[in-house]
Design brief:
alpha/beta, Rossmann fold, FAD/NAD(P)-binding domain, 2 domains, seven-stranded mixed β-sheet, six-stranded parallel β-sheet, 16 helices, 18 strands
C-alpha cells in the first residue's frame, strides 16, 4: 500500500523528516509545501551571508529531493492558498515543520518607535526573502543597538560592522550592499541582560567580532566572576572559552576612537525606548542588573541603577518565537504547537488526528541545524506507528486542487533552474550567488 505524507515547510527539519520517511519500510510518497518559492527555510534566509560554509548542508537535501517519491510545491502557503482541512483530504498524515517565524517582544514603552525592528526582519531583508524587500532600515545615524547576545545578534552586529569589501563577496543581496555601503553607523552596541558567564555567543563568534578589519571591540564590563559564575564556568566548556577570550580581548585589544566600534555590554536590560515628536527612536533607557540564584539558575534582577544610550536604529534579538497555525491548538506561553513526541495534541491532551510537528514549532527555538535530525526522526516514528495500520487509500492528487485554484507553484526542478541562475549571476560579480528577491522575477526566469 502507498502512503501519502504532506510536509509543510522546507527547512532542515522538513528535509530530515522526508529522509526518515523514505528510510522506513513503508512505501511513502512525500509532498513538501513551502510558502516561499525557494526551499531550505532559515538555511537560505537565516544563515549569515558571510558564513557560506554552513550553507553547504543543502547538498544533502538535494539528494533527499532526488527520491522518485518526493515532490516540492514552492509558493504554496498552507492556511492561505489551501486550508489545512482541505490539504488533509489528500494525505494520510500532515507534518508541520514551520519553524519559529517571529521574535519575542521586549514589552517595554516605545517598542513601536520608527527604526525599532526585530532582528528577524533585518536578517530576512539582507538574505533576500521576497516579502521583506520593501522594508526600510535607516542607517543614516551614528548608533545602532542590538538587544541580545545570541548567534543572530552576533550575525547582525557583524553585518553592521564589517567593511563593505568583506560583504561584497558573499551572497548578501545587492540592495543590502548598497544600503550598507552608505551606512553612517559608527557605534554598534550588543547588549545582554546577564553576565559574560551566561553569554549565549560562542568563542568562535566572539573571535570573529574581535578580528574585523578596522573595527574596535570594546568590552565595557569587568570580567569579574561571582562564586556562582565560577561554578557555571567549571561545568561549561563554552563559558570557559568565552571568559578566557573576553579577558584576553579586554586586556590586549587596542582602541582607536577614529574607527567603527562594537560595544559589548552585560548586565543591562532595556526598560524604555525614548522617541521624539515624530515617533522616531532617539535613545534607549537601560537598567543595570545583578544576578541572583544558584549556579546554572542565575536570573537577572533589577538594581535600580539606570543609564541611557543614544540610538538611531534598534534591532531586538531576544529569541525566536513560533506563531499560531490556523486550525491548530497553540501553547502561547511556550510559543509552540502542543504535542506528544510530535503528535499534535489539544491543550487538554486529546490527539489531533494524523497531524504532527517537528523542528522549532515542536520544541521551541533551540539547538543547531543537526539537532533537527533526531527531532524529526522522533516525529516520524510517532507518525509511522499511527499510519501503518490504516487502510485508507488516498488516490486523488493535490495538483487537481492547485489547478482548480489557479495556484502557480515551483517544483524542485524549477528551483534547480533558479539555483543555477543565481549562481551564474553571482559569478559575474564575484559572489557565490546573486539571489533573486522577487517572486515575479522567479516566474519570468522559469518561462524562458
Amino acid at each position: 500500500m502507498n502512503f501519502k505524507v504532506a510536509i509543510i515547510g522546507s527547512g532542515p527539519s522538513a528535509f530530515y523528516a522526508a529522509q526518515a520517511l523514505f528510510k522506513s519500510d513503508l512505501n511513502i510518497k512525500v509532498d513538501m509545501f513551502e510558502k516561499l518559492p525557494t526551499p531550505f527555510g532559515l538555511l537560505r534566509g537565516g544563515v549569515a551571508p558571510d558564513h557560506q560554509q554552513m550553507k553547504t548542508v543543502s547538498k544533502s537535501y538535494d539528494k533527499i529531493a532526488t527520491n522518485e517519491n518526493f515532490r516540492f510545491f514552492g509558493n504554496v502557503e498552507i492556511g492561505k492558498s489551501i486550508e489545512l482541512p482541505e490539504l488533509k483530504q489528500y494525505y494520510n498524515c500532515v507534518i508541520l515543520a514551520i519553524g519559529a517565524e517571529t521574535d519575542r517582544k521586549m514589552n517595554i514603552p516605545g517598542e513601536d518607535a520608527i527604526s525599532s525592528h526585530t532582528a528577524t526582519e533585518f536578517v530576512a531583508w539582507y538574505n533576500g526573502q521576497p516579502s521583506y524587500q520593501n522594508h526600510q532600515f535607516n542607517l543614516d545615524g551614528k548608533s545602532a543597538i542590538i538587544i541580545g547576545q545570541g548567534n543572530v545578534a552576533v550575525d547582525v552586529t557583524r553585518i553592521l560592522s564589517k567593511p563593505i569589501s568583506n560583504l561584497q563577496t558573499t551572497d548578501i543581496t545587492n540592495q543590502a550592499i548598497n544600503c550598507l555601503k552608505d551606512s553612517k553607523i559608527k557605534d554598534v552596541y550588543m547588549i545582554g541582560r546577564r553576565g559574560p558567564a551566561q553569554a549565549a555567543f560562542t568563542e568562535l563568534e566572539l573571535k570573529e567580532l574581535g578580528n574585523i578589519e578596522n573595527v574596535n571591540l570594546k568590552i565595557h564590563d569587568d570580567i569579574n566572576l561571582s562564586e556562582a559564575d565560577k561554578k557555571e564556568v567549571e561545568l561549561s566548556n563554552k563559558s570557559r572559552k568565552n571568559i578566557a577570550l573576553l579577558n584576553e580581548f579586554k586586556n590586549s585589544l587596542p582602541y582607536d576612537p577614529s574607527k567603527k566600534t562594537i560595544h559589548l555590554l552585560f548586565f543591562s536590560s532595556p526598560v524604555e525606548i525614548i522617541k521624539d515628536n515624530n515617533n522616531k527612536i532617539t535613545k534607549v533607557k537601560f537598567e543595570k542588573n545583578k544576578l541572583t540564584g544558584e549556579a546554572g539558575m542565575q536570573k537577572a534582577q533589577a538594581s535600580g541603577e539606570f543609564f541611557e544610550l543614544d540610538c538611531d536604529i534598534l534591532l531586538r534579538s531576544i529569541g525566536y518565537r513560533g506563531v499560531p497555525f490556523k486550525g491548530l491548538p497553540f501553547d502561547d506561553r511556550r510559543g509552540v504547537i502542543p504535542n506528544d513526541k510530535g503528535q499534535v495534541i489539544q491543550l487538554d491532551g486529546t490527539p489531533v488526528t494524523n497531524t504532527y510537528v517537528t523542528g522549532w514549532i515542536k520544541r521551541g527555538p533551540s539547538g543547531v541545524i543537526g539537532t533537527n535530525r533526531s527531532d524529526s526522526i522522533e516525529t516520524v516514528d510517532t507518525c509511522l506507528n499511527s499510519i501503518q495500520n490504516t487502510t485508507i487509500i488516498k488516490n486523488e492528487d493535490i495538483e487537481i486542487i492547485l489547478a482548480d485554484k489557479n495556484i502557480k507553484y515551483v517544483t524542485y526542478e524549477d528551483w534547480k533552474i533558479i539555483d543555477q541562475y543565481e549562481i551564474n549571476e553571482g559569478q559575474k560579480v564575484g559572489k557565490p550567488r546573486e539571489k533573486v528577491t522577487s517572486i515575479n522575477t522567479i516566474f519570468e526566469i522559469l518561462k524562458k
